[in-house]
Fold these 3 entries.
Entry 1:
Amino acid sequence: MIEDFLEEQKKLAHFIEKWSKVSFAEGIKDLPNRRKKLVAIALENQARYLKTLTESNIQQFFRVSAETLLEITYLIAANSKTDDVFSEWYCTTPDDAIYFVDRVLKSEKPPEGFDKYGTVDITVNKKRFNCRPFPVGYSFYKLSDLCLDPKIMEMMTGMVTRAVADEHIRSKDTRAVDTVLRLAYTNPLNLIAELDDLKPVSYNMFEKTGRGVVTNIVVNPITYAMIAASKEFKVDESDTRIGAVYLAGYLRDIAIYVARTTRLKDGELLMNHKNKQEEGDHSVVFGTMREFDYNYDKCTVETIRDVLIINPIFHQIGHIVLSKNKFWNWFLLKVMKKPLKLK
């Protein structure tokens, strides 16, 4: 097993070095370590698929050159927020297996003199992806046709390829947020009257699994305006305000992401645990085998992907409320349907 792991790391290092020598992917070495791996595998997967097609096939199916499609793939893998907020995995086969450590906190009768007692049952489990074709979620050809106009490409080459990548990222990140949001709705609603009310949410995660804390929150623009008014909030301008999801800043040490999705309601918080120290500690994993694939039957461009749900407790829904009076909160939320303000 150790030999397999070392061999895999050696392959990844080779892929990173290989793609860093290509002009459009020179920046791969400046990316964080995990992102380097994701980008390298994404490029390798897309390149292998394109090698099975002729140049005329690629132009016919995608209306862009192989190099342009790979450049768009690089921009997608390097800039998508799906792995920053949740977890993403670029699969090398349709049924790649993902291994994870499952910790279950088992309650036991406490010995005399102790208030709480329990043990953690630890097992190593695996789940397999079932990557299959899905629509890309936007009109790929309307954007790719811009790349066919020599005048446009001469003046705006980088802007056009970036526009295609941004639209793909928007579709991809929106889909990820909407998927996790539906999952989080299956957990109890948390009423957030004060900033300190985030602590019980983290405790709830920890109580069920023996680990976990709220590390990031996804909100819509209206809710972001509420949070940004807090003295505890620190703006982060390192991220571009482009696409469906962007990092807006930090509420204490919790990253606040703004998502342009109609599914997130005003005053609603999608609170997530993301373990950045341990790659094998997953909640929901979005698996992608190829960003671009051609469906011969439908004559459309698709993406090959799947999603695995491993630990749904790490995604909680909160709603900003005016007070800790439960009846009053219920009345405001359910009856009056009134947007509320953070204290």
Entry 2:
Amino acid sequence: MLLQVMLWYKRVVNVVKEIFSPDDFTHPLCRRLAQEIFSHQGDITPSHLINQVADSALSSLISSLSFGDSSLKGVDLQKVAIEIIQTLKRRSHQRKIKQLSQMIQNYEREGEEEKVKELYQKLIQLRKSILI
């Protein structure tokens, strides 16, 4: 849905670009679409994008996101984008916390006290950044 909002609302693209890169989109086709959207300066329409891309799968994705679903009509797109971004950030932080916690457990078992302290500090900083 984030890509769908980005296709229609340039201000959302600018906000998303500050937080994410195309590599943050896990599906290869979505990653390519994000690259296309991010690479354009100024206003761009879905029709313009469809005409610019040579890949039929990418054109088809753009078409389905922009013209196939009218569920965004009357919706505050900026609010939707902010909610999506907050959700993605929260999930990202949760993944990082889980990874750090697992690494701490592994190093504790190995008796690597310095590494445990270092990772524990990173975990504290990450948790503090979530609260801010």
Entry 3:
Amino acid sequence: MFDIVNKRGSAAYLETREIDIIKRNISCHLNGFKENLYFGDNLTFHATFTYFENVSNTLNHQIVKLDVISGNNFSYNTNYITNQNATITVFLISGENLQIGINQIIINLQNNSINSNSTYFYELNVNKLPILTVVQHFNKKFQEGSNILVELKFFYNSSDILNPLLNTPISFIIYNNLSLVYEGICITNNSGNLRLVIAYDLLDLKTRINEIIFWFCVNETEVLKRQELGIEFSLLLEEGQILSNSGLMDYIFYLLLSVGGCVLLSVFLILKRRKKSVQVSEYSFEF
């Protein structure tokens, strides 16, 4: 406040005030941006910068810096210039600019005399590719004692192209009533096909009701997800049809025991007729 006296002797007052001029805050709007991608899919999106939700001509020809951080490394770093619509177009390549996992995308509108230095953070997750499986052949109706044929095809979809899973090891497990009866490794051929001929006796049928599961597993790789597939079916056996090794051996054991009992009885009757006492230990039987 200043006190000023004019020529007429009256006082006049002049007040000064401070005006704080701040730079404008800019908003960033993305069009076409995706938060999730599969490996092999590229990404194109547009970033438009606005002031009070309106495109301002003063945002033309502004420098925009874009960084992509995958893990702890910069996988992409470049500068863009906004066009007449205050927009930049970004194209990112999967596997080159974008890596599997979380990718941080940082967009920075560089500072100038009007606009503030605005930084925008986004996240994009690149997922591993799922493995697809098609059961090409499996017949639940097969004759007792015959082999079982299973044919599968493994492939994955990358950039809308179906690729066969070539020469890949597949874990193969057989369960019978939730008990593990077989475990092994098989390999797909050059077309991604897997053909298995499974012996009937390998099912280890010990009970009348058998819940069978053929379980296939493909371990994950750098770009492919783990895949599991189960084929389930039931086998109902009639009495006397249990064909497992243990059941068959039990049957043979009881059969031989019965035959041996008959032989001993016959010998005992013959010796009794001759009125001769003989120790059973004098006789031996081999089966």
